[in-house]
Amino acid sequence: MKLIFAGTPDFAAAALQALITAGHEIALVLTQPDRPAGRGMKLMASPVKQLAEKHGLPVYQPEKLRSPEQQAPVAAIAADAMVVAAYGIILPQAVLDMPRLGCLNIHGSLLPRWRGAAPIQRAIEHGDAETGITIMQMDAGLDTGAMLSLHPVTIAADETTRSLHDKLAECGAEAIVAALANLPALQAGAVAQPTEGVTYAEKIRKDEAALDWTLPAETLARRIRAFDPFPGCTTRHGEETLKCWAARAEAGNGAPGQVLAADADGVLVGTGSGVLRVTEWQRPGSKRLPSREFLAGGKLQVNDKLL
After folding, report:
1. Bond before 33 cis per omega within 30 degrees
2. Distance, CA of 99 to CA of 109 (rounded, Å)
3. Which CATH class is domain 2-201?
4. pLDDT digits over 70-104, tens only?
């Protein structure tokens, strides 16, 4: 097919590569404008743009797609379909109507659960046992379009957003290639999303990263996994802000935030219910370290208070 592809991060780049490999004509790639990143805050091209340029594909990077002038390069393609994956820019109805077969979205959850910006993180944070990929026919709503296909993925007990992201990116890449190969039949059998079971995955905010030790240990362990690799969960130890990158909930009791044990097996911390064994840490300006190496500095000890 003659396609337009719209996406920005690694999740989307996996799908773009699959479409290229499958032999589709990628007539235009839409991705967000280059953004400052890294310590030097230099302008960085998105993973999708980097892949597109590697394959010599035309790239268009509008800030928005609201005006006829902004939409003109999309209209000029006369595409069979547009594939959208984690693009990050709202597509107005005029753009959705431009491709002959409409716009297809690769969404990282089993809709209608976890519509919105952070479906992978929220699924882990809330303890879901399963998530997946939905190939959806886009409409003007927020992930409200009819479902063309569903592809379940199990969430492992120790799953992080980093690991689940990679599973879903691979699943989404395979799913969109399969959907395009059978698109007329899938569109004829499209299923409207049920009104029951709708949840919204709000964008992750940095202010959510601070651990509240009065919460149950299991809740904290899930949040730590959900916020890896971004933004990373934090706690205060004296004047220092530490990041907690890996932890597991265990049976036990202790005052919330109190360090109950600190050894090579991890740092055991009291919570509102149960105890949390933190096994990977990071100090400001340092790298992630297992507890054995982290504790060698001698700054964190039994009976210390984490806030």
Report:
1. no
2. 25
3. alpha beta
4. 999 999 999 999 999 999 999 999 999 999 999 99
DSSP string, the chain: -EEEEEE-SHHHHHHHHHHHHTT-EEEEEE-PPPEEETTTTEEE--HHHHHHHHTT--EE--S---SHHHHHHHHTT--SEEEEES--S---HHHHTSSTT-EEEEESSSTTTTEES-HHHHHHHTT-SEEEEEEEE--SSSS-SPEEEEEEEE--TT--HHHHHHHHHHHHHHHHHHHHHTHHHHHHT-BPPPSTT--EEPPPPGGG-B--TTSBHHHHHHHHHHTTTTT-EEEEETTEEEEEEEEEEES----TTBEEEEETTEEEEE-SBSEEEEEEEE-TTS--EEHHHHGGG----TT-B--
* Fold of the 206-297 domain: Methionyl-tRNA Fmet Formyltransferase; Chain A, domain 2 (3.10.25)
Burial of 44 per CB tally in 10 Å (0-12, 13-18, 19+): middle
Contacts of 161 (CB under 8 A, 6+ apart): 120, 121, 124, 225, 226, 227, 228, 229, 230
Domain(s) labelled CATH 3.40.50.170 in the chain stretch across: 2-201
Question: pLDDT by residue (tens digit) across 244-296?
Answer: 999 999 999 999 999 999 999 999 999 999 999 999 999 998 999 999 999 99
Per DSSP bridges, beta strands 289-290 and 147-154 are: unpaired
